[in-house]
Write a structure and sequence with these properties.
The structure is a homodimer of 658-residue chains.
Chain A lengths: L18 E6 L11 E6 L3 H6 L5 E2 L15 H4 L1 H18 L3 E8 L2 E9 L4 H13 L5 H7 L2 H8 L2 E2 L1 H6 L2 E4 L1 E4 L2 E7 L2 H9 L4 E5 L7 H6 L2 E4 L7 H9 L2 E4 L4 E4 L4 E4 L5 E3 L3 E5 L4 E3 L5 E2 L5 H13 L3 E5 L3 H9 L5 E5 L10 H12 L3 H25 L4 E5 L13 H11 L3 H10 L12 H6 L1 H20 L5 E6 L5 H22 L6 E6 L2 H5 L1 H7 L2 E4 L1 H9 L7 H9 L16 H15 L4 E4 L7 H9 L4 E4 L4 H16 L1
Parallel strand pairs in A: 9-10, 10-11, 11-12, 19-20, 19-26, 20-21, 21-22, 22-23, 23-24, 24-25, 25-26
Antiparallel strand pairs in A: 1-2, 1-4, 2-3, 4-5, 6-18, 7-17, 8-12, 9-16, 13-14, 14-15, 16-17
Chain lengths: 658, 658
């Protein structure tokens, strides 16, 4: 205990003072355990932070290029400095945290004006938490609570240098879809982005909205900026999955694709291809400038911190990953399994050309015979993809979700692809167009997708079952321990599951007979449509696990299309009709009620039913707090969110047990 | 009591018989209280019904043109006939219903083979129920139960003549979207349908799917046949609203609009404009033939029957009507109010040209100033439409639902309309196209519609409030008793209601001040999005009534787009994954659970909260039975379904109190 409680103690107007200062008991920028601060002679506290006069450094140890020519308090008034340094230590010992201190000096007498818990950057929060733990000032639980998930996120992404950012003017704002900073020159097409990447030039990809065809261009870009879309639009989801900076729904942006220029409402500039742009993905801010970035990369402290974090969490953490690379990255971030592997992933992006051509052929053929042949050509690609990921995840569960998107999403749009497909099928391009058109849907999100496809075409499901089981058998023969879990998407009725399970079991027996390998797997379902949650008791008779797909569940529960929500979400948040974007933070009163009901109903029929979440909410701290409370078993999130989810889960558990 | 219970009594093989017959204690085709039947000498019972030999008539009174040359049993064996006629009376007295009797005669000895309750047509069911009631054979409740809703439906629609239909071959099947029969020549466009109607020629309108632009063509057609769409697609909803025969989702149909021909998979014919087609809307059957129709129109018996029906029901019956004509028709069918008046109706179909042009101007303008001006031009049209219906419904409640569809639904598609709009707005056609495109949505059903429009543009809501209140004040000044109820669509949060209510109250006070009329109204909400049901307790703080929009609630709860469900619904019903189309009959386990939860939660906060249903289910007997059970106050259905809903509600109440 210190003698006087100085927290928020204000001495009022001291009259003419000889000096005033602001100090931090440790460095708030990097966490160094060094007394850090600034002071000015003949000034008020406001003058120190106002930045009109360059303040003097507090001591010799923390002088910078900027203020090294000015006299430190340590030198100018050694006794006062020694007294202040002593108070600093007593305050920290009392509050067990870094203090932000205001002081004034009159006639060499030190007066404390105020002290409070100091704000800090992510990296500083981490450094201080670990230092204080080592100093015995705080215990492990407190250390875990000291780094917020937002701060951890900051540590994991390169960001715009705050000093440099401060000097630039924001020209437009959008939704902060994926954090971090990005700096690059403007491009308007995926092709241009890829061309620039080949020359190692950083670019910002500007689009109205992105589609699966833009994947490679998005991958090649430093950052992505779109006019439309919400927090879970295609661009947002993909970018967040990669940990890439992205701003969506920047409605002020007007693109002129013809002249390759872009302008922003409320700003007079017209920017052309090649002009520099900087994005702050955490704020959704766009700058027409080349701003410096900072790379706060991973360090041993982070790894030690995370190992402490893991001691306190109850929730398992899995990842959403569709490639061996993503799986590997997620494991390195601490993922304990894959909660969502999307079979369709192999039809998008890199190396997708050949399997996509086969898929298109399968979609467009008309007879059962043609479909069987096309699926036989497709199967090896699925098997190879499944096998590679099961191998990386050896011994850890991998949830394979059956083909989910409506088929028309794969119908080629470009003329040459349509011509190629026509040739492949031996029909006219007109016929290709006609068949493609017949797949058109008014509301594709509520259309012929997910399990509905597999009810109509059981052969498509069987091909996937066979690919998964064959891959599993081959890995077992190689002495590995694959743990496949099969998940049915878009389920609305227990009978859909029974229908699929019977086909799945048939294929398992066939593959077991062919390979002479016993195959263990779990069979489960997404709960992503309200009716699935409402009938969860029936679902649990067949399903061995539930994975709550809270993206779609939010869409259906709100009737909010995540692709279209950008047009009104701003008005909803602005008018305080919604407190938060429900695609970012789980809506406890509606969607959360369905999740809770689903868990309870499911476990009433199957004790210990494994329940996870694989929507975007799986990486959101507030949502994780809720999921921990209602008894979910795990959350699954994109690889870059895994450490954040681990931290949020630990903090949720600590808060719950408090 | 008769001496022997002959129900299902079979005497076995009688050896060589001298005669066999089948008789009905009353005429099953028209309900006449005349003994009716057929018999054959030297034959088995099967021969009588097989139709190979023309059977003899039972008696002189029921001879037809077809069999008048053959000897009746009454003439051939008067004693046997008299004995049979006596048994007929004893059986009816015992079973209190019309009997289907099989008998055989050997050496002039009559043997009864079997008897059971006889099947009958709708008109016969009505006739018999009323006759038996008058005869004292049954009580009122029994009479009410004797006519099934399907039979009542039959009475209310002209149908294909069953005899003529039997001779024709079904060339394709689709979903039975709206019952009744239609016969006409093929047309492929609304224009052709209207041209034919001008010449009083009946036509069948064939489309891939219909849109609001087809309204007048649909109205002009005898029947509608579409390739796509489910039971609640645009075509189905509109046709059912009018009581017009319609088949949708006829996927076997291939239309060649260029050559104006149509063909059907599994049928070799190619049919061109002008060829005859017949539709059985109750079965979903398509015939390439001109089949006779029967008109079983309304009769005094029906009116008397319905007055008895009304004594036993608890549920109120309202109608979905948007025009004075529909309202008038519904009242004549017994509607007690309007449960759904769609403001947007005035922008479709007849006389919509001018208000639609004003609406388009309002949608496409860019500044607040332009919007205020455009809305001012629009308001008188809304007021006139509202006023006309309130006047017809004097003293009865009318629920006005605010503008519901996404705005892009009103963006003109034809070139001349776009040019007209451009001129009207003083902008280029390119600019019109650009603004129109910016309204495009990926999933419009879950997009910027309903209350979301009114959150973004409160002025649009205020215009509607002002129109409704001004109309109300004017009618009050004329000495009438208008009862407006204002309903907010697509609500997901109680705060949307509070937001709207405050605007609504502001306008009410303004109109009261201007007109010096006190305005009474009720303010309520649709419950048509799962979250609205899940948060119904909060909703009920502001809402004075709930109307469950079970069409949309079914869409969101299942994630089934009603426009796209046609592609897989057949597979779901065929594989018994669903027992019934949930758009036709309420899904008790999922959607029904939400409705029940919504009622309970709502009434927990507002005692006696008025709860109705205004989806298609409001006219479906099985659904009405459920709605009665869970304590809804009323159902609202299309005018032609009103009598069916009255009957179903009475039967539900009788069953519940049994």
């Amino acid at each position: 205990m210190i003698g006087v409680n100085v927290q928020s103690m204000v001495f009022g107007n001291m009259g003419a003072t000889s000096a005033t200062g602001v100090a931090f008991s440790r460095n708030p920028a990097n966490g160094d355990n060094k007394f850090y601060g600034e002071w000015l002679i003949n000034a008020q506290g406001e003058d120190v932070v106002a930045g009109i006069r360059t303040p003097n450094p507090l001591n010799e140890a923390t002088k910078t290029d900027h203020n090294k020519h000015l006299e430190s308090l340590e030198k100018a008034m050694p006794e006062v400095y020694a007294e202040l340094d002593g108070i600093r230590k007593r305050l920290e010992d009392h509050f067990h945290d870094m203090q932000d201190i205001e002081f004034t000096i009159q006639d060499k007498h030190l007066y404390m004006l105020q002290c409070r818990i100091g704000k800090r950057t992510g990296i500083a929060a981490l450094q201080m938490a670990m230092d204080m733990l080592d100093e015995g000032m705080i215990d492990e639980k407190t250390a875990v609570m000291r780094v917020s998930p937002v701060q951890l996120d900051e540590i994991l992404h390169p960001i715009l240098d705050p000093a440099s950012e401060k000097k630039a003017a924001v020209i437009a704002k959008g939704l902060p879809a994926s954090p971090g900073g990005a700096v690059g020159t403007i491009v308007f097409t995926s092709e241009a982005a890829m061309a620039a990447a080949a020359q190692k030039k950083p670019v910002i990809l500007i689009r109205e909205e992105t589609s699966p065809e833009d994947i490679e261009g998005m991958r090649a870009s430093a950052g992505i900026l779109t006019t439309r879309g919400g927090m879970t639009s295609h661009a947002a989801l993909v970018a967040r999955g990669w940990g890439k900076c992205c701003i969506v729904g920047c409605e002020a942006m007007k693109i002129d694709f013809e002249h390759k220029t872009v302008s922003f409402e409320g700003n007079n500039g017209v920017y052309k291809e090649g002009d520099w742009l900087s994005l702050n993905g955490a704020k959704g801010a766009v700058y027409a400038a080349k701003i410096d970035t900072m790379d706060a990369s991973e360090n041993p402290l982070f790894i030690r911190f995370m190992s402490i974090v893991d001691k306190y969490r109850r929730l398992g953490i899995r990842t959403n990953a569709d490639t061996p690379e993503d799986a590997q990255r997620a494991v390195s971030f601490g993922a304990e399994g894959i909660g969502l592997f999307r079979i369709e992933h192999m039809f998008y992006g890199k190396n997708s050309e050949t399997p996509l051509a086969k898929l298109r052929k399968m979609i467009m053929c008309e007879t059962e015979e043609e479909r069987v042949a096309a699926l036989a050509e497709l199967e090896p690609f699925i098997k190879a993809s499944v096998k590679a990921t099961l191998k990386i995840m050896d011994g850890k569960p991998v949830v394979f979700r059956l083909l989910d998107p409506p088929l028309h999403e794969f119908v080629p749009k470009s003329e040459d692809k349509r011509a190629e497909l026509a040739k492949d099928l031996g029909i006219s391009v007109d016929e290709v167009d006609k068949r493609g058109e017949s797949l058109h849907e008014v509301n594709p999100m509520m259309g012929h997708r997910g399990v509905r496809l597999h009810v109509t075409y059981p052969l498509i499901a069987e091909t996937q079952y066979r690919a998964i089981f064959t891959a599993t058998a081959e890995l077992k023969a190689e002495g590995l321990n694959p743990k496949p879990e099969i998940m049915i998407p878009v389920t609305v009725s227990a009978r859909e599951l029974e229908f699929q399970k019977s086909h799945c079991e048939k294929i398992r027996l066939e593959v077991e007979a062919q390979t002479r390998q016993a195959i263990d797997y779990h069979f489960g379902t997404m709960i992503e449509i309200p009716r699935a949650a409402l009938t969860a008791d029936r679902m649990a008779r067949t399903a061995e696990f539930f994975s709550f797909g809270t993206n779609d569940l939010t869409q259906m529960t709100f009737g909010f299309s995540r692709d279209d929500v950008g047009t009104f979400m701003g008005d909803y948040l602005g008018n305080k009709i919604l407190d938060a974007d429900p695609f970012q933070t789980i809506d406890v009163k509606g969607v959360g009620k369905l999740v809770e009901y689903g868990i309870t109903a499911g476990r009433s029929k199957r004790q210990g039913l494994m329940c996870g979440v694989c929507g975007e909410h799986g990486g959101d701290p507030d949502s994780i707090n809720f999921f921990n409370k209602i008894g979910l078993d795990y959350v699954s999130c994109s690889p870059f969110r895994v450490p954040i989810a681990r931290l949020a889960a630990a903090q949720a558990a600590i808060k719950q047990n408090d």
